[in-house]
Amino acid sequence: MAFRKVLKRTAIIGGGTVAAVFGLSQLIEYRKTQARLAHVAAEAELKVPFADQLPSRQAQLATLKNTEEFDVLIVGGGATGAGCALDAVTRNLKTALVERNDFSSGTSSRSTKLIHGGVRYLQKAIMQLDYEQYMMVKEALHERANLLEIAPHLSAPLPIMLPVYKWWQLPYYWAGIKMYDLVAGIQCLKSSYVLSKTKALELFPMLKKDKLVGAIVYYDGQHNDARMNLAIALTAARYGAAVANYTEVVHLLKNNDPETGKQKVCGARCRDVLTGQEFDIKAKCVINATGPFTDSLRKMDNQETQNICQPSAGVHIVIPGYYSPDNMGLLDPATSDGRVIFFLPWENMTIAGTTDTPTKVTAHPMPGEDDINFILTEVRNYLSPDVEVRRGDVLAAWSGIRPLVTDPDSKDTQSICRNHIVSISVSGLVTIAGGKWTTYRSMAEETLDAAIKAHNLSAEPCKTVGLMLEGAKSWTPTLYIRLVQDYGLEKEVAQHLASTYGSKAFDVAKMAQVTGQRWPIVGKRLVSEFPYIESEVSYAVKEYACTAIDVIARRTRLGFLNVQAADEALPRIVQIMGKELNWSPDRQTVEGSSVCTCAELEAAKKFLYHEMGYRSRSEQLTKTSEINLDYQEKRFHKFDKESKGFITTVDVQRVLESINVHIDENALHEILNEVDLNKNGQVEIDEFLQLMSAVKKGQVSDSRLAILLKTAEETLDMRGPVTVDRSGGGV
Prior knowledge:
It catalyses: a quinone + sn-glycerol 3-phosphate = dihydroxyacetone phosphate + a quinol. Pathway: Polyol metabolism; glycerol degradation. Pfam families: DAO, DAO_C, EF-hand_7. Keywords: Calcium, FAD, Flavoprotein, Metal-binding, Mitochondrion, Oxidoreductase, Repeat, Transit peptide. By secondary structure, this protein is α+β, with helices and mostly antiparallel strands. The chain folds into four domains: 51-109 and 227-307 and 418-455, FAD/NAD(P)-binding domain (3-Layer(bba) Sandwich), CATH 3.50.50.60; 150-224 and 311-404, D-Amino Acid Oxidase, subunit A, domain 2 (D-Amino Acid Oxidase, Chain A, domain 2, 2-Layer Sandwich), CATH 3.30.9.10; 478-616, Helicase, Ruva Protein, domain 3, CATH 1.10.8; 625-717, EF-hand (Recoverin, domain 1, Orthogonal Bundle). Helix content is 43%, strand content 17%. The chain is built from 27 helices and 21 strands. Strands 3, 4, 5, 6, 11, 12, 13, 14, 15, 16 and 17 form an eleven-stranded mixed sheet that branches. Strands 1, 2, 7, 8, 9, 10, 18 and 19 form an eight-stranded mixed sheet that branches. Helix 16 packs across helix 17 and helix 20 (563-581) runs antiparallel to helix 21 (597-611). The N and C termini lie far apart (87 Å).
């Protein structure tokens, strides 16, 4: 009773002073209790038509084609579009959603992976006395707390260190971070704190210690963005929304309003991208949630409309996990050009970014070498000189397009809106644009409120605060132990499944094949160094994965973590998907599918090459530098005994066998393929020289062929020359 009285009293004072009244642990527990009560109340009122099994994509398409009229049709399957679908369907509106690519295939899967209010936005709000920006931060902090509650398997609090190298900055940054805590109020994840130089280096040993004064640690949230987006879309489907990926809008449908005589948007002509079949979807209201492509749909409505989207490209890179502690991020508050760089642990790797440069809207943004090198340079500025930051350590890189917008209703159309905007055209097209990943839910709520009012729809109040997402119900931090005990999975694999699928991890485990080994009993890995298993590919099809790209980029995150590993896993992924989806090896239609497995493999490789940084990685091998050609040629001919001018797997295998090293032939093919630039199954002398050059310059640091050859060479040098006859004589 006393606890409730104090709560009531502090609520009047305001959220900022609550922290002064309560202990932090009490506040956090109170917040969690309130959130649990909210989602219990929300779910109690809702029916879940597809609680047991999701309808297939074909069933979803049939619903879209055969429904006489929907209340709401949402165009766009990113975080905002999926959020709108979930908001609409839980308000008891008949809901449809179409996405021309895959769910989260655009900006929503290419973020910094943070759920945050924005420390730098708060700084600007205070320095510029900007109330709008302050409220944006406050809203985002509220949404951060909600998102961490409704998807605990996909998100978690993350401590982020802000290193300080000047004494005067310590109180300045401390005041700013404490203000961040106060704005969050009772939704503060954990209180920020100051560290001495010694303690900072203990927690982040890679940090540059020269002139380090100390550090400040604050907390934000981190998530698996693509899986979070997918969870929102799947939850909407569970509640009855008809959702379909690879379904694009060809043009908008319009009819004459009998009251005004003006044309009104009443649906869309759509095309199934996979089959080419076109059909109409009728709807009382159409919502444009297409992110960077906002203006494309607005121009379908009215060719004369002015563009409001000002796209900005943000590049991120992934480097090995040893560059950062397992559970501590780093914030560079002032880079050489005034931007902010995050340096964060993610999925056992380290993610660094982002840049912010104007760009053109494209469905296939590519990371540029200049941006990659800029990030590497900034990282070097904060890490110890003992840690050599090498270009070759970049395992993946990607570019995401942030859809900054100008308000079409503002007199000053040139000024960029810091927050999101909701606008309604003369013909009734509702557009939601801009905003942040973190605030997708509140953006969706505002959009639906506007749509309901503008189109006079009969709907219930918003119910998405506290509404648990796919896999969140029944999830616990120890769920992975049951997976190990009940199914015989490796601990690392079980932890991965639990944190990716939540309570649905059991469905994935049930599909896992027996390994034939003593341990693990089930769960064949796609690649040895990552915990992704083959049954995830089969389960991905149930989650509406239609292509191999969907699997490597968004159902798993392999393509975002290591392009080389993703490339190696592709043949098996395509093989499993081909069986699940009846893909044809010769492009003939099989049971409604016109996908060719070889074309599918090629498309996925192209995606890795252009969009995930494989191209930049490959180009490092083609750069030349001064190396001792005579010495390197002698090294080459130790393996090319017949002076053919190239090395094959047979040559390498022969030398390895001579030193009692045995490698599987398929694995050896993969190793040679890493540096086989012209993909002819052999490594020519010029390719070998380029590899050695790149290794020397640090542009390539993890070439398995270079390491293998060096090991074999050192062993041979210790033994003396090995004759061809002794090693088997060749072919």
